[in-house]
Structure to design on (708 residues):
């Protein structure tokens, strides 16, 4: 119960309990109390409503580095309101609450070490905020600067960049950079990084130049770099060759570090290649060799370059890091699109590239007719095979990544199925064609055409043609050559057979329906015949294309009376009975007592047709002939002007008699009198008669009294 109502109830109970004798005083007291409580209610209503205090309920994570992704959860005063999130006063996120729920994500901006203030601000009421804290910690990031377009080699120097974020303001951080070599030996160098006013700083240390004695890049393998032994690491690879892949005829630059003037053997091997050479290191112990090029006959694949000491002075393999490294000869991506003579792409073609009569690549074209061959620099022969038959061959040279259209000796077979309709040749749609030996099912389009793509021009083909699953033609083609040459398109035309159709139209009474319009339409469209029945109700159509037809009978106004469907797969006879045509409607008009109304105007009107008017005969009947079944309105007029006396609706689906009884009228001496007037007249006459009868009776009684 509302508190105010409770007060009223309590006071009323107390007042009644005291049994105040003075009702007037009691009434005045209640009025004053009512006014006081009303004032209190209005005052409470005008007080501002208390809202839920905005609070950041979660910050995940609560501590992290600059660049960390943080999720914040809070509530917002304004339902579905717009908010922003600030980090030390800078906006880091903006969004709309879902209901009163805030779920925001932001990235920690560049800032200093320690706690920082988070605020969620309700932009609809900027005095409403929620406050939280995020703790920024110091992070180190390592980045190795690698040379562009080449691989690091033995003896190279590597700049190592170290970045500090989330540090103290304008502070110098002494950082230890550690590099672990492939030998598992570690080397440490010292680096001083000065931070800015935002706690960030960056500095570079070069490995092995700025590292203590013993640091080197004289071994093949991965070198792992870390700062202050943190989990943030970076890796760089040192090899022998100046690249990881080469194409034919490209020189392979090889560099290694050994003892001064040490004799070594350099070997390149793989995919049928085995080439070795003896070399001597220079006075600083460096071997720099670039006299070996990838042979013009090198196949695509993986190769190895290795170096071993002939004197045994430097034994890198003792430390399980031999001077051995792989490189690849990848080839170029040679994009091939297979097309037939008509320019259409062809799928499932096997494309084989031959070099010096040896197959070096073999691929199958995809659904869009394309495939990719990886081929190295050189001259090739390309062959295409469809259904294991060679359908194309061409020569080409590869110097780089290329795209190539491979035209094949494949022909499109254009098939057209036609019929002569009303003296004009038209295409027959939806004709089914089964093509062998391809075992391919085709269907002609709305124009009667269909194409069998990319066929072998030298093969023989058989076309089994049907419509509505009714076979009507078998055509054999010896080849798709014109003369002795393949052509882009080979055209073949197939004629659809024709038959006769005899249509017999009859009326509802079974009599012939003469001068009826007969329309014959093929169900799939495109074919249409018209005719008119003769005196015998018959019309004959000659040379109708094989098909399934809708036969419609229409009257002279174009109204459809009946229809049927007939398959013209041979000469056909069809009878269409128009059971709703030639109907008779007899209307009988009578008065209240069933007496016939003669010479009365009766008007008959069908749905959308012109009205027909006739007068009833002496027996009250009128007949309307040769009607079409419909919904009719029958109106009866007692006068030639004005509104109808009676209107009656009737649905007619056969000859019928419609009785109309005009209960409002009674015929007296052949004249219509309203039944109400007749009733009044009869009542008056009876009343007069009764009065007269009573008067006579009264006078007779008085007479008898006088006589006595």
């Amino acid at each position: 119960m509302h508190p105010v109502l409770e007060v009223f109830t309590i006071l009323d109970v107390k007042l009644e309990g005291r049994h105040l004798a003075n009702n007037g005083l009691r009434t005045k007291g209640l009025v004053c109390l009512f006014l006081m409580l009303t004032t209190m209610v209005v005052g409470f209503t005008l007080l501002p409503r208390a809202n839920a205090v905005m609070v950041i309920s979660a910050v995940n994570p609560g501590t992290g580095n600059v660049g960390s992704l943080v999720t914040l959860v809070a509530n917002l005063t304004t339902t579905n309101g717009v908010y922003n999130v600030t980090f030390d006063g800078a906006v880091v996120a903006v969004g709309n609450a879902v209901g009163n729920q805030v779920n925001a994500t932001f990235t920690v901006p560049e800032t200093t070490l320690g706690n920082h203030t988070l605020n969620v601000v309700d932009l609809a009421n900027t005095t409403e905020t929620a406050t939280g804290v995020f703790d920024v910690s110091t992070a180190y990031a390592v980045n190795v600067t690698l040379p562009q377009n080449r691989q690091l080699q033995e003896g190279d120097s590597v700049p190592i960049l170290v970045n500090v974020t989330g540090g103290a303001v304008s502070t110098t951080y002494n950082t230890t950079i550690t590099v672990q070599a492939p030998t598992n030996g570690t080397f440490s160098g010292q680096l001083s990084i000065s931070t800015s006013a935002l706690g960030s700083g960056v500095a570079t240390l070069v490995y092995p130049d700025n590292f203590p004695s013993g640091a080197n890049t004289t071994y093949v393998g991965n070198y792992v770099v870390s700062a202050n032994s943190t989990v943030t690491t970076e890796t760089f690879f040192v090899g022998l060759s100046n690249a990881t892949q080469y194409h034919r005829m490209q020189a392979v630059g090889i560099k290694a570090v050994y003892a001064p003037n040490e004799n070594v053997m350099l070997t390149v091997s793989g995919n049928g290649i085995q080439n070795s050479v003896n070399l001597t290191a220079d006075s600083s112990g460096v071997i720099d060799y670039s006299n070996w090029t990838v042979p013009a006959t090198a196949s695509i694949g993986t190769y190895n370059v290795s170096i071993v000491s002939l004197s045994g002075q430097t034994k890198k393999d003792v430390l399980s890091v031999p001077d051995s490294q792989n490189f690849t000869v990848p080839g170029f991506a040679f994009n091939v699109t297979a097309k037939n003579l008509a320019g259409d792409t062809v799928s499932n073609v096997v494309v084989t590239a031959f070099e010096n009569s040896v197959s070096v690549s073999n691929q199958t074209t995809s659904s869009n007719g394309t495939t990719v061959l990886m081929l190295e620099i050189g001259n090739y022969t390309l062959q295409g095979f469809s259904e294991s038959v060679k359908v194309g061959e061409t020569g080409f040279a590869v110097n780089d990544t290329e795209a190539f259209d491979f035209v094949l000796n494949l022909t499109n077979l254009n098939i057209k199925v036609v019929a002569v309709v009303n003296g004009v040749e038209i295409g027959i749609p939806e004709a089914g064609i089964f093509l062998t030996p391809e075992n391919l099912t085709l269907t002609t389009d709305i124009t009667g055409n269909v194409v069998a793509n990319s066929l072998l021009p030298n093969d023989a083909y058989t076309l089994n043609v049907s419509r509505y699953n009714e076979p009507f033609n078998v055509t054999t083609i010896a080849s798709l050559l014109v003369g002795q040459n393949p052509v882009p398109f080979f055209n073949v035309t197939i004629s659809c057979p024709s038959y006769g159709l005899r249509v017999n139209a009859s009326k509802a009474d079974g009599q012939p329906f003469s001068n009826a319009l007969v329309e014959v339409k093929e169900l799939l469209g495109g074919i249409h015949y018209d005719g008119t029945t003769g005196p015998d109700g018959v019309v004959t159509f000659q040379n109708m294309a094989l098909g399934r037809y809708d036969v419609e009978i229409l009257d002279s106004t174009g109204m459809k009376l009946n229809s049927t469907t007939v398959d013209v797969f041979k000469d056909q006879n069809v009878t269409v009975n128009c059971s709703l045509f030639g109907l008779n409607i007899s209307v009988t008009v009578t008065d209240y007592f069933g007496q016939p109304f003669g010479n009365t105007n009766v008007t008959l009107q069908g749905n959308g047709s012109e009205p027909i008017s006739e007068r009833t005969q002496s027996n009250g009947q009128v007949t309307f002939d040769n009607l079409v079944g419909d919904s009719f309105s029958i109106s009866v007029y007692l006068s030639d002007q004005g509104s109808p006396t009676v209107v009656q609706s009737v649905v007619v689906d056969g000859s019928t008699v419609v009785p109309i009884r005009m209960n409002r009228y009674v015929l007296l001496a052949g004249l219509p009198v309203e039944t109400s007037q007749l009733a009044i007249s009869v009542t008056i006459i009876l009343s007069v008669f009764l009065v007269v009868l009573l008067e006579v009776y009264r006078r007779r009684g008085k007479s008898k009294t006088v006589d006595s």
